[in-house]
Write a structure and sequence with these properties.
Helix content is about 25%, strand content about 15%. It contains 15 helices and 23 strands. It is globular and about 80 Å long. Bound molecules: 1-deoxynojirimycin.
Length: about 575
């Protein structure tokens, strides 16, 4: 069994603009993060991933980078960043940066120089093509924001490609100079001492150079067959690994890659191929959205979620590795989407955390998730910053769709739910800022905040602390052991065994707001009599033996049992 210690990491994601403001300008910043490092450490995580803090016009909240080697003045200075690195590492934690390598901002000096002249040495850093004869763009791909993925530049009579905003032109990875620049920039951060990287949209960097039309007719993000997991992506990643990541021992990488098959993930993360260490399992957090329309929700069944998780757990075992998450800066809040943010907020937040932290894979926590932060009650499109939401609204209403209906969808699905300020305490701006926050603070911060949960043994925060401790203490089983699903067809209960040759654990999760009855099959290979209750999100039922595996779970109940003995051979 492969027991590398990096697999035992637990990562905390910070979305810096919304985490902690230190200078009263309403925007989170690096000094703010430094002031909260003791808190982060107290959760028990060992790694911090910082969403982008580079110079950026913030059309896409930092995912439009104008200079990959400089800190955005909104966030502070390079000296602040160095202090953050030093203070993080002196607490025994690692710091990971976010690498946005598929595109830059249009304010990046490369694009500024490429834009107006075909002779510029930077022209070929981006993807330019002549339009079709009838004045149409070079192909019919649509960007993730809707509309053509191409923007026309009059000065040179050519179009450039952008899979996202037109202010985020795509880099041309087929140009060796671009790859060298990127490798050099990555080494620059490695030399500064970072411990790892999250790689944004990494599986779209290599496009089919013929740029063929797509047969899809999606308003957003069509053409993916010609750029997702594209022709040279593995070669380019191997090169990046060789020339940058592996120039220093211990650099860990996680790739953001949607629409990947198990084969793709295996290729990206098989250690022998030397590409990336892990890919996020993005399939499960997207289960509630229509694949053709990211603002349309779809009903999903627990059996579908189980199928996804089980497929990843089984098919990648001893081949690759992946990151697990239930929330990040691109999704509404986890407890509002997959749990119950009303009556069972606390129970369901703990239950979802139990799933993420007891599977094979690296768990990621998104700021605020650990205190059960919920969606924000947005009432109007005017309140939003999320460019995806704003573009979607514009495109649909221009097409004649009912504005109210579109607005309702957008307000429900916007990424801004995850971007409202971190709720530290019950004071007027939740302790996030002394000024006017860039995004509104949720009124429920009076009840849902870090200060209220710090010392409450029953809080979500303390449940996360216990979960992480449990994961560490039983890493041989929880991190490195095998996974076996039970009750595959049950629509309320997610149950699985984690095991190695010597030890076994059992996880029972009720995904519904009703009591759930179940009967574990007899032939599960373990003997339940020896079990002990390691953790749960309810008090054990009165009058019952807490260590006895039950036949019923209460709404959103989660229980982890340890100490199961292998069943005697018949
Ligand atoms: C994924 C990032 O997580 C998201 O926030 C961003 O908008 C896109 N990639 C484009 O960089």
């Amino acid at each position: 069994m492969n027991r590398e210690s990096w697999k035992e990491k637990v990562v905390y994601q910070i979305f810096p603009r919304s985490f902690q403001d230190s200078n009263g300008d309403g925007n989170g910043d690096l000094q703010g993060i430094i002031s909260r490092l003791d808190y982060i450490q107290s959760i028990g995580v060992d790694t911090i991933w910082l969403s982008p803090v580079y110079e950026s016009p913030r059309v896409d909240q930092g995912y439009d980078v104008a200079n990959q080697r400089e800190i955005d003045p909104m966030m502070g200075t390079m000296a602040d960043w160095e202090q953050l690195l030093q203070q993080t590492q002196s607490r025994g934690m690692d710091l990971w940066m976010d690498l946005v390598l598929n595109h830059t901002s249009d304010q990046h000096r490369w694009f500024q120089q490429a834009r107006d002249s075909k002779d510029s040495p930077y022209r070929d850093y981006y993807i330019w093509r002549k339009g079709e004869k009838d004045g149409e763009p070079p192909n019919n791909w649509t960007s993730y924001l809707g509309g053509s993925a191409w923007t026309y530049e009059e000065s040179t009579d050519e179009y450039y490609l952008h899979l996202y905003n037109k202010k985020q032109p795509d880099l041309n990875w087929d140009n060796p100079k671009v790859r060298e620049e990127i490798q050099d920039m990555v080494r620059y951060w490695i030399d500064k001492g970072v411990n790892g990287f999250r790689l944004d949209a990494i599986n779209v960097i290599s496009k089919d150079s013929n740029l063929p039309d797509t047969k899809e007719s999606k308003m957003e993000g069509s053409g993916y067959k010609h750029f997702k997991n594209g022709p040279n992506v593995h070669e380019y990643l191997r090169e990046l690994n060789e020339k940058a990541f592996s120039t220093k021992e211990g650099i860990i990488t996680v790739g953001e890659a949607s629409m990947v098959s198990m084969e793709d993930v295996a290729k990206y993360t098989d250690p022998d191929r030397r590409e990336l260490d892990m890919i996020f399992m993005m399939e499960s957090p997207s289960i509630g959205t229509d694949p053709d329309d990211s603002f349309k929700s779809r009903d999903w069944k627990l059996t579908e979620l189980k199928e996804i998780v089980t497929r990843w757990e089984k098919e990648l075992l001893n081949i690759g590795w992946f990151g697990l998450f239930a929330s990040n800066h691109d999704h509404p809040r986890m407890v509002s989407s997959f749990g119950n943010d009303g009556k069972y907020r606390v129970e369901s937040a703990k239950m979802l955390a139990t799933l993420v932290h007891t599977l094979w894979g690296t768990p990621f926590i998104y700021q605020g998730e650990e205190i059960g932060m919920t969606n924000y009650p947005f009432e109007s499109i005017e309140q939003l910053d999320d460019q995806m939401a704003l573009h979607y609204y514009k495109a649909r209403t221009e097409r004649g769709e009912d504005p109210q209906g579109v607005e309702r969808r957008v307000l429900a699905g916007t990424r801004d739910h995850a971007r409202t300020p971190m709720q530290w305490d019950e004071s007027p701006q939740a302790g996030f800022t002394t000024g006017e926050p860039w995004m509104p603070v949720n009124d429920n911060h009076r009840e849902i905040n870090v200060a209220a949960q710090q010392d409450d043994p029953a809080s979500i925060l303390n449940y996360y602390r216990q979960l992480i401790k449990l994961r560490r203490e039983h890493a041989d089983v929880i991190v490195h052991g095998e996974y076996a699903i039970l009750l595959e067809d049950h629509e309320q209960v997610f149950a699985y065994v984690r095991r190695n040759d010597e030890r076994q654990g059992l996880v029972l999760l009720n995904f519904s707001d009703q009591d759930a009855e179940f009967e574990l099959p007899e032939d599960i290979g373990v003997c339940l009599d020896s079990a002990y209750r390691a953790l749960g999100n309810y008090e054990p039922e009165y009058g019952k033996d807490a260590d006895q595996v039950p036949h019923r779970l209460r709404p959103y109940e989660a229980i982890v049992f340890g100490g199961l003995q292998p069943a005697p051979q018949k």
